[in-house]
Amino acid sequence: MGIRERMSGNEAIAVAMKQINPDVVAAFPITPSTEVPQYFSTFVANGTVDTEFVPVESEHSAMSACIGAQAAGARAMTATSANGLALMWELLYIASGSRLPVVLACINRALSGPININNDHSDSMGARDSGWIQLYSETNQEAYDNMLMAHRIGEHKDVLLPVMVCQDGFITSHAIENIELLEDDKIKGFIGEYKPEDYLLNRENPISVGPLDFIPHYFEHKMQQSLAMKNAKDVILQVTEEFAEITGRSYGLFEEYMTEDAEAAIVLLNSTAGTAKYVVDALRKQGKKVGLIKPRVYRPFPVDEIAQALSKFKSIAVMDKADSFNAAGGPLFTDVTSAMFIKGICEPKVINYIYGLGGRDVKADDIESVFENLLDIAKTGKVDSVFNYLGVRE
Amino acid sequence: MKKGLNEKDKKSLDPNVSWKDITRGGNISSPGNAELFKTGDWRSMKPVWIEEKCKQCLLCYPVCPDTSILINEEGKRVDFDYDHCKGCGICVKVCPFKAIDFVEESK
């Protein structure tokens, strides 16, 4: 039995980091993730962890320090949001391309401009092709659990990729909720010691990391990286299963909520799933066949499984808390529809909603209006509009 | 220093290597292998050592940004390593005895 506590999503992440006790944490404060290094630095000051804490002068340096530390043979972690993640940009690719399993807590926030500090997914969605594994979390509990699994996934020899654990800024990062923590010794046993195969401080076998890699070999390295991301899916499932054995909390690649006989379903990430579940319950009481699919693993994208799960519905709304500004729908929408198409699942009508940009509230009524639209589409088979914006004033 | 590649890196740097055999992320575990990467063909100007004018003062040796001025076992400079010299001309400037000529590569 775990430890019953109550804390915010940021504190949950910091506590996970404390229990992991990584070798190096390098971070720069940015709203709404500031509390993560803030809490963690108190653990450092109190001697609760023996981590080398590097208070850098920018996020570019935070990720650089993590890369250097990880290459040296250390476990390195950081946390950031929005423009902080954007400032890490080139380093994100260097971490993944150099196959260094750094772990980052992304407290999702809208990218400026205009300046906005509230939640949407434009930060992590921009990093979706940076070669990082991305796990999304509905609650503080899920963020904590994903964080505890991140090292096991990233450090697996078939993977060796960095991992980003995402949760909604303010909505879960600052809201205090109940949580069940795992005992320190169980975490220690679950995560184990970091034993990299190749690392800079290995005197027996010194290496160079990040060399010049031109036309004859770069593509081969990218091929390996691509395969590593493909391998990550099975590794995530294995690690998640092991985690369930010690905690009783099981996760998959995505969560299906009331989908068995559903005709209409919503697909969305992170905290809005909580609101959507509330609406599903209410509509179910009225006899309406609605359900929800909440992806946990967005990178690697579970093409086969998502397509299969969606094949049973008549109408689907994929909801993106980030716009791709591509005149072709949000990032989750394009991934979902492409997965369905290549698996030959073309029966369900699929529409897209961009919602909640810059922290705009998404209320139960808003979600209900999406379901009403979907049920109408399920009945008539007619789609008026594929690309929709939810909650923006006309 | 002993130069040369270990088996892993030898395989990895082979231009025909498959992605299955290449080292992860381009990691290299043999030191000094930059020697295998010939950069001499980047050169447009070429330094030419005039042996009879050379006093062996060795001022040229430490200023070479590459290691393209070769020194023999007696500690005397010998001819350039044209496989790696990029023709920057610093050695030409530094020579007090005009013992290094600087000519266009094509000539």
Would you kindly provide a written description of the structure presented here, covering whatever features stand out?
The complex is a heterodimer of chains A (394) and B (107). Chain A is an alpha/beta fold. Chain A folds into two domains: 3-247, 3-Layer(aba) Sandwich (Rossmann fold); 254-390, Rossmann fold (3-Layer(aba) Sandwich). Chain A is built from 13 helices and 15 strands. Chain A has helices at residues 9-20, 35-45, 59-72, 82-87, 89-97, 122-126, 140-154, 184-191, 218-247, 272-285, 303-310, 331-342, 364-380, and strands spanning 3-7, 24-27, 52-55, 76-80, 103-108, 133-137, 163-168, 177-181, 254-257, 264-267, 290-295, 297-299, 315-320, 349-355, 387-390. Chain B is an alpha+beta fold and 107 residues long. Chain B folds into two domains: 1-37, no CATH class; 38-107, Alpha-Beta Plaits (2-Layer Sandwich), CATH 3.30.70. Chain B is built from three helices and four strands; from the N terminus they run H-E-H-E-E-H-E. Chain B has helices spanning 7-13, 60-63, 90-94, and strands at 45-49, 69-71, 77-80, 100-104. In chain B, the strands form two sheets. Chain B has a two-stranded antiparallel sheet. In chain B, strands 2-3 form a two-stranded antiparallel ribbon. In chain B, a hairpin with a 5-residue loop joins strand 2 (69-71) and strand 3 (77-80). The longest helix of chain B is centred in the first third of the chain and has 7 residues, at 7-13. The model of chain B has no long low-confidence stretch (mean pLDDT 91). Chain A binds chain B through residues 97-100, 160, 198, 205-211, 213, 216-221, 223-225, 227, and chain B through 12-13, 15, 17-19, 22, 24-29, 31.
